[in-house]
Amino acid sequence: MDGNDGSALELENIQSGLLSARPSPYAATYILLHIEDPAAGRALMRRLSEVVASAAHLTSPAGDTWVSVALTYSGLEALGVPEASLASFAWEFRQGMAARAEALGDTGPSNPEHWEKPLGSRKVHVILVALAPETEQLERALERARRAYQDLPGIRALWRQDCHSLATGREAFGFKDGISFPGIEGSSVPGSNPHERPLKAGEFVLGYPDETGGLPPAPVPEALGRNGTYVAFRKLHQDVAKFRQYLKANARAAGEEEWLAAKMMGRWRSGAPLARCPFHDDPELGADPRRNNDFLFQEDDAIGYKTPPGSHIRRANPRDASVAGVVSLHRMLRRGTSYGPPLPEGVLEDDGVERGLMFAFVGAHLGRQFEFVQSEWMNEGAFFGGGHTKDPLAGAHDGRGEFSIPHRPIRRRLTGLQRFVTTRGGEYAFMPGLQALRWLGDLRT
After folding, report:
1. Which pLDDT does position 60 carry in this prediction?
2. Nearby residues of 82 by Cβ (< 8 Å), 6 or more positions away
3. Kind and range of the H or E run holding 28
4. Taking every annotated instance into account, which residue ranges of this chain make up the domain DyP dimeric alpha+beta barrel (predicted)?
5. What is the pTM of this model?
6. Separation CA 104–CA 427 (nearest Å)
7. pLDDT-derived band at 63, boundaries 50, 70, 90
8. What is the SS3 assignment for 229?
């Protein structure tokens, strides 16, 4: 397929990790690197350009195993990228995620002063991500990545996070994950919602027209910016015990805990959407990718008797809600991978073990995609008439949060919402195209 300017996506120059959906099951590893010597950093870029597969490989047998590389702003500085090029990157990226903490709701226990080191610091230069359907394949991918940096004396590994799919196939709170994602025009990536047309490639890949009809601002020169994108990496701790305690304390009858959890999420834990089965769970529907994301909100549920307007999925993607503005301008690719063991079923006390999600939010516009959704939809409710309410599951609550459930004859109101998700760290990064990796490797000062 061609874009509206007549140019097809240059798949051979786009990193496969940008367009690859997470396999199921999966195993993944995140590695952070520090560049101590610019020459070594450039050598690393040249080597990684041979390790990272292109999106043209998505249809190959190895298309579900991939290594991605992204750089922070301080990483680009460490490579010796010219000042004119550095100044051409998005201003949010140049500031870094830690500096954007207040706007993102990273306050209180999520404040960067509490983050895992070295996350959020200028020491983080390169982010490597390897992902595969199972551990053996992941180790092979990791070995290729390690060979690219281990014998370079000017490169130092700082941090590693191993991730995996849980035995249940769900995330730590117990919900089926990775259901909703947009299609990309000009790619082989179909969307999961048949009601949503594929979005312009420029929403996700720099160098192509976006939903406004123009080209998104991109780094210069073109060899650096084209076929790249921005990524917001987040490590999010999930307090499963606290979530279970809250459900138990607010349930009025036996079995109501599951109903409350579904209303807060907008789906039953099986993945079945309230929009299609509002009164009871339907695991068969939840497991069916042809049906579990086939719905809209406004056509028959404007008030939210099925799916509350303030629920997680309705905030993250309001779909056909006109009050949210042009929803297509705020869509992102979302890659979530779990870390840590599950809290055993029925346990209500925290065991002190770290568990949660590593997220990668991918898009060409950090400001109007990730930051807008995080600040205006997840941590505010004005767009649907919900005032200053926050996402009931992922919002930056302080123990005084509220959540309204439209219900006949009288709405149900939950109070005292606590912070169930805490940010452990994060980074804004630029994922260059393969040509750009080679350009970075050939830099001269």
Report:
1. 56
2. none
3. strand 27-35
4. 28-146
5. 0.95
6. 12
7. low
8. strand
